[in-house]
Design goal:
Elements: E1 4-7, H1 17-32, E2 36-41, H2 51-63, E3 73-74, H3 79-91, E4 95-98, H4 102-111, H5 135-143, E5 149-152, H6 154-158, E6 167-170, E7 174-177, E8 187-189, H7 197-207, E9 212-216, H8 222-233, E10 239-243, H9 263-268, H10 273-279
The chain binds glutamic acid.
């Protein structure tokens, strides 16, 4: 079966070697199976993403020899589509508005007898303050235009038939058990933009017919959540292949802030596309 894969960077800085490894991990199976490799710009975060970075990373990927079909999907141009999904989840009672600030959440946790619990991605599990807001109070806050996020009601989501028994297929490793409950009431729409990474990536993988999601090992836990969203929305299930993250000589994960690891710096040093691909762990020819 031909694989349809994608590379989905967030344009928050220059392309670095870790990105190249990720892009090639998607490009290779697509190429080898006679499938397709897509590029998607995940730029919903207005504070951190810049169009200039996106153009720069496309030019670096092109220089490396990668090609992808047009048009490239820029998530920031499709916010209405994500809003429609949120509305559907809202009608089913699966999301609720959360008016809490970070401070409110910290205070709530401090006031309770329990230590904060953390989700697999390191975020603090939301204590559920706004889940139980009386409808009148919630409506008044909404009517007053109070800034709010939208959170998934995890308990309700898990009560949807089949939601507790989800698995995903990890290529080469077989079926993996999903543990979406470990994330608690995760944010599906941020306060500043009516969208979130988890929602948009899952929506777009389905919309674009991605059959194999390749990405870094750091995102493996999020796959549980993505499978839950696919289940709730009736979206097709892709396969997954999480690749190890590149480390430096001392075994530390490559950091974005390390300028020596940017492709721009490598180009300035006179490295060839082949040298850079080899440094990312793909020494062979591209075609
Ligand atoms: N936009 C995400 C990132 O840059 C990647 C998402 C994914 O591959 O699922 O980390």
């Amino acid at each position: 079966m031909p694989d349809i894969t994608r590379f989905a960077p967030s344009p928050t800085g220059g392309l670095h070697l870790g990105h190249v490894a990720s892009a090639l991990s998607g490009w290779r199976p697509a190429n080898e199976s006679g499938g397709r490799f897509l590029l998607r710009i995940e730029d919903i975060d207005p504070g951190r993403c810049r169009a200039a970075f996106a153009h720069e990373l496309m030019s670096d990927l092109h220089w490396l020899g990668l090609r992808w079909p047009a048009p490239v999907r820029w998530q920031s141009r499709h916010l209405g589509e994500y809003a429609r999904v949120l509305a559907q989840l809202g009608e089913r009672g699966l999301v609720y508005p959360c008016f809490c600030t970070r401070r409110d959440i910290a205070d709530e946790i401090a006031a309770s007898a329990h230590a904060p619990h953390h989700a697999p991605d390191g975020s603090v599990i939301y204590p559920g303050t706004c889940r139980g807001l009386p409808a009148r109070q919630r409506d008044a806050l909404l009517a007053a235009g109070t800034p709010h996020a939208l959170r998934l009601d995890m308990e309700r989501a898990l009560s949807v038939p089949g939601a507790r028994d989800l698995t995903w297929h990890e290529r080469g490793q077989g079926r993996q058990q999903c543990r979406p409950e470990l994330f608690g009431d995760v944010v599906l729409a941020r306060k500043d933009v009516l969208a979130s990474y988890h929602l948009c990536v899952t929506h777009d993988d389905a919309l674009q017919g991605i059959t194999l999601v390749t990405r870094g090992e750091d995102l493996r836990p999020a796959t549980s959540l993505h499978r839950l969203l696919q289940h709730l929305m009736g979206w097709a299930e892709p396969q997954y292949a999480h690749h190890p993250l590149l480390c430096d000589a001392s075994g530390r994960r490559l950091a974005k802030r390390d300028r020596a690891m940017t492709i721009a710096a490598m180009r300035e040093q006179g490295m060839s596309p082949h040298d850079v691909r080899a440094a990312a762990g793909y020494p062979g020819p591209l075609a």
